Amino acid sequence: MTNLWEDLETGPNPPEEIYAVVECLKGERNKYEYDKDVPGVVLDRVLHSNVHYPSDYGFIPQSYYDDEDPFDVLVLVEDQTFPGCIVEARPVALMKMDDDGEQDDKVIAVPVEDPRYDHIEDVEDLTQQTKDEIDEFFSTYKNLEEGKEVETLGWEDRQTAYDAIEHSQELYEEQFG
């Protein structure tokens, strides 16, 4: 059985085009996580706060980030896909974040195969409303979980996202290569 984290390449042309493995769906409160030991997507928990994912959310294959997890990616979509869906995506920004004292940045990407996002190339192409909604979600989604503190730390451009993806590939290779 294919392990989507270990067996799938990072993308067809990383860091400019990556694969995003969807775990959590736009508009839902279920927090799914890919369990490499199953392998498959399992329900980790239901978000304690009355918020929902602003878009499809998952991880980048063959990546490992500073929080010792696969690198997180939020793919902007009009309609949700499904847990385990593989989306070919273009990174356009990086949202910096601290989760309980660990660097837990998020790549923001758009689907390659959706012309609605062709005009979005970099962080300045995202509307302020889109950035505010993403920031608000990640600032508050753990508020009702005991002992959890999250802080969003601002937005970085596409090149910074590329650099972070390359960093995550290097960490993956060092740890698991």
From TrEMBL:
Report the EC number(s), separated by commas if there are several: 3.6.1.1
* Cofactor(s) annotated in UniProt: Mg(2+)
Q: Where is the signal peptide?
A: none
For this chain, the family text in UniProt reads:
Belongs to the PPase family.
What InterPro entries would the database entry show?
A: Pyrophosphatase, Pyrophosphatase_sf
Q: Which GO terms describe its biological process?
A: phosphate-containing compound metabolic process
Official protein name in the record: Inorganic pyrophosphatase
How this chain assembles, per its entry, is:
Homohexamer.
Identify the Pfam families for this entry.
Answer: Pyrophosphatase
**What is the first-listed, main subcellular location in coarse terms?**
cytoplasm
Q: Where does substrate bind?
A: 31, 45, 57, 141
Q: Name one GO molecular function term.
A: inorganic diphosphate phosphatase activity
Q: Which SUPFAM superfamilies match?
A: Inorganic pyrophosphatase
UniProt keyword terms in alphabetical order: Cytoplasm, Hydrolase, Magnesium, Metal-binding
Q: What is the documented function of this protein?
A: Catalyzes the hydrolysis of inorganic pyrophosphate (PPi) forming two phosphate ions.
Query: Where does the protein end up?
Result: Cytoplasm
Q: What class of enzyme is it?
A: hydrolase
Q: Which reaction does it catalyse?
A: diphosphate + H2O = 2 phosphate + H(+)
Q: Per UniProt, where does Mg(2+) 1 bind?
A: 67, 72, 104
Q: Which Gene3D superfamilies match?
A: Inorganic pyrophosphatase
Residues binding Mg(2+) 2 are 72
Q: Extract the HAMAP family matched here.
A: Inorganic_PPase
One cellular component (GO) term of this entry? cytoplasm
